[in-house]
Amino acid sequence: MRVLACVLTIVALAGVARADDDDTDEDGAFMPVSKRSIALAFGGHGTRIGGLSEGGVGPTLELALGSGRWQYFTEGGFATSNVSTSTANPGTSVSGRMLHAGGGLRWLARQFRPDTSGGVELFLVSRLGYERFYLDDGTRLGRPELGFGFGLQGRLYKKPRLAFRLDFRALFTPTDTDSTLAVCRGRCMTESANTGFSTGIAIVW
Amino acid sequence: MVKLAARTLVALGLVALTPVAAAHPPPPDDYVESEPAPVVDTDPAFNMFGFRMSAGALPLDGGRTTALSIGLGVEHPVFKKTRVFGEYEWLWLTWMDDRALTSMAPRPERHGTGHRASLGLRRELLGKNLGRSVRVFIDGELGATFALVDDNMRGVSFVPGGLGGLRFGYDIYSRSDDSPSRTFEIELLARAVAIEGGVGGMMGLGMAWGN
Questions:
Q1: How far off is chain A from B64, nearest CA to CA, in Å?
Q2: pLDDT tens, position by position, A147-199
Q3: A6 touches chain B (CB under 8 A)
């Protein structure tokens, strides 16, 4: 009886092992993301404030935890901010700073491995965060931010396990109220929604 | 007890016979199985998934509009060298206001965003293999676009149109059998977009993964 039990156990385990090695298990074919990683990025963004174009550049620091094809990250950074206040003279702008922080998910959608040492990957990303503007004319504006995007990542699977990442996101924020924006000076227009974009390059370790 | 002893003997006998069977394979007969010819897939077709970033100009409402776009796309081979593609693009639009350049008074900026879906066919016009792992190509494309544009002056509008263009690029094929994506494609796109009000153009850089 013990022998039979052992045999049945072995057979059962063998079946499970075969199932795990099945080629149809797509996740298993992917080289998983790093369990822990840190990224330093430099990027640019473009948004609207009260109907006026705003843009800037700056660094971002990201900390991430990975599991399989998923990565959970938190990030924060600062950037310059320039709001164009006149279409007659595009050089006229109000400058300032923008701080932002948030967290999100990244999913490894595709992975191309020319050989065993590394690969080129496509990921999709979503992010929920908060951004706050400090403009030199006294405007103080804080607003939540929702972002969706994708990116390209070249990654080494062996030490030093570095990656180079390009990132593109579309940003959505609630509509600003003109009363809070000194920068508008009566010229801001109401929009149904504020949208923008951000892009950046990052070194990941 | 006797049964147990008999089973044990049978089991031992089977175990003992196993190496003997391995040591004495059956004699070969006259039939010689030839090695199968290696399958060389010189024109592989893949389902593709990737992204593109583009910039250009569109004659929205008859005006000059600068358009930046980022988007995702899928492709599926339908014929030997023809693929059907579907794309989604998010558009960032800024209208050029010529009157603002000569106006003394500040003029409001007209801008907007849009969501554009495209459906079409692309076909290889020219292609050449460079070694076993790289193929360069020039493809032509034709299709239709449907956009929802939301600008700060006129609100939401539906903008249908047609597209035609050329794609220049190359495919890299993986030597690793366990690569989830067997090919990686990089392409430059030059696309004309015809909408009500005229014809615009977009230039873009795209990358796609195939499996």
A1: 15
A2: 999 999 999 998 888 999 999 999 988 876 544 555 554 445 555 567 888 99
A3: no
Q: 3-state DSSP call for residue B191?
A: strand
Tens digits of per-residue pLDDT, B174-203?
888 888 999 999 999 999 999 988 999 999
Nearby residues of A110 by Cβ (< 8 Å), 6 or more positions away: A121, A122, B49, B50, B180, B181, B209, B211
A199 vs A44: CA distance, rounded Å:
6
Position A148 scores a pLDDT of 93
Strand partners, A166: A152, A201
Integer Cα distance of A165 and A21 in angstroms: 30
- Paired residues of B207 in beta bridges: B51, B186
* Out of A84, A113, A189, closest to residue B174 by CB: A113
pTM for the complete prediction? Answer: 0.75
CA angle, B145 as apex, B139 and B150 as ends, to 5°?
Answer: 135
Chain B residues touching A168 at Cβ < 8 A: 51, 53, 70
ipTM of the complex: 0.74
Q: How far apart are CA A163 and CA A160, in angstroms?
A: 9
